Amino acid sequence: MNNTQSTEVIFELSKSGRRCHKLPACDVPASHALSALIPQEHLAEKPPPLPEVGEIDLIRHYINLSARNMSIDTNFYPLGSCTMKYNPKRHERLAALPGFASLHPLQDDDTTQGMLEILFEMQQFLAEISGLSAVSLQPAAGAQGELTALFVAAAYFRDKGQAHRRKVLVPDSAHGTNPASAALAGFNTVTVKSGKNGLVDIEDLKSKLGDDTGVFMITNPNTLGLFETQIKIITDLLHSKGALVYLDGANMNAILGITRPGDFGADMQHYNVHKTFTGPHGGGGPGSGPIAVRDFLAPYLPAPVVVKDGARFKLNFDMPKSIGRVRSFFGNVGILFRGYAYIRTLGPDGLRKVSEQAVLNANYLRTRVSKGYEVPHTGPCMHEFVASAHTLLHKRQIKAMDVCKRLLDYGFHAPTVYFPLVVKEALMMEPTETESKETLDAFADALLKIKDEDPEFLRNAPHTHIVSRPNEAKAAKEPILRWTPNKQ
Ligand SMILES: Cc1ncc(COP(=O)(O)O)c(C=O)c1O
């Protein structure tokens, strides 16, 4: 994005007396004015120092600000594991229909039958796609889905008199939320190594599996974009020890309608509706991370779930073994609704095509990128792959981060960088099914050009953006959200 507009803020455009609008003269009698009703000591001494600007300046200011961000609607966004696919605008129109948008979560069931029917069907669709039997729509993100499922597992083991199963096994290629969720749920995490082929090392898994193991959290396809070909052996192994298998479903975009976690042995899984089923996301939300579980775990799901009672739909709170609520009301209904619209639009065959195309696109891009970058795990890949700038760093002192920053100048969002941790200088790319061959070619061309550019020039990239290299940790942890005037 070539954005070199002025960095002026709206306060600096302010000119005394300038307005966007003209209000009619106040016809409320002075005795009824708010200022007459509120005690004097609570009144502000003077109006707040708001910017005084005309409408055109105001509009230009905000439109220019909005154009400084990259988004899926403006740029290719190959953020591995995050599935940044196109968010169909039709879903926005449907979600904005007054019958949905104006509902209040405290309304009586009798007046929300339409929405309850949609949530009920969504539970059924997600159960069918996973090959599992019961669903909770409550969790508000993938990470919260993980945590919820682990609470469910802990409640199940407590109920069975097996509270000693405190160990959760997690592969070293897993997303950081997996061990974090296990720790938050009170389990001890133990890392399982990946073999040279990038898949779970079965011998290492066996050596760590014991009677104290509660859950194995596995991502399949894993974060290297590889399908765990021994998944059935792995899940049988876990079950033979009485442990449960949790499937991190962040990568469901690769397997929709092709295989089902329940069929390859998972007992629980989460979905990222905001990834796989096109909920718009980024910048921390909104998300939706429903979980699906096997029938014997259903009693422990968060209450309420939506049930059908004759021809009526209702919220079932009568779940004595439930772990309780994990989120207010029924989950992030706006995102669930968009996911529902997507599933209904595509149907089973369409969903399968989504995954086939996503895998095809990733393999095409991998083949092109591998002409200039190391790709440590040779293909074919699933819906994403991980390249490495490791050799580039050795030969030309160019880091993965330099490549990513420079991509912004070419008009592309960066891939996921430095994850998974098992690959040095990782560049994790997920093109998704919605991108054309022309876009994939343009992106691959940019990557191949960048690797031959001047290392010093790359170290200072991006060159066309107002903000170049912020301290990213500080920007996330200490965001400056309020403008303050420059001190003279
Ligand atoms: C493999 C994997 N697991 C879990 C998560 C967590 O999902 P969320 O961001 O919805 O909390 C992510 C998110 O990037 C992920 O890539």
- Strand arrangement, major sheet: 1-7-6-5-4-2-3
Helix-strand pattern = HHHHHEHEHEHEHEEHEEEHEHHEEHHH
Q: Give a quick account of the main beta sheet: strands, pairing sense, barrel closure.
A: 7 strands, mixed
Small-molecule components bound = pyridoxal-5'-phosphate
Question: What is the terminal separation in angstroms?
Answer: 33 Å
The level of helicity is 25-40%
Give the oligomeric state of the chains in this entry, treating copies of one chain as homo and distinct chains as hetero: single chain
The helix tally amounts to 16
The tally of beta strands, per DSSP, is: 12
Low-confidence regions = 1-6
- Average pLDDT: 94
If classified by CATH, what would the architecture of the largest domain be? 3-Layer(aba) Sandwich
CATH class annotation of the largest domain: Alpha Beta
Q: Would you kindly provide a written description of the structure presented here, covering whatever features stand out?
A:
It contains 16 helices and 12 strands. It is an alpha/beta fold and 488 residues long. It has 3 domains: 57 residues, no CATH class; 256 residues, Aspartate Aminotransferase, domain 2, CATH 3.40.640.10; 125 residues, Aspartate Aminotransferase, domain 1, CATH 3.90.1150. The strands form 3 sheets. It has a 7-stranded mixed β-sheet, with helices on both faces. Pyridoxal-5'-phosphate binds next to helix 6.
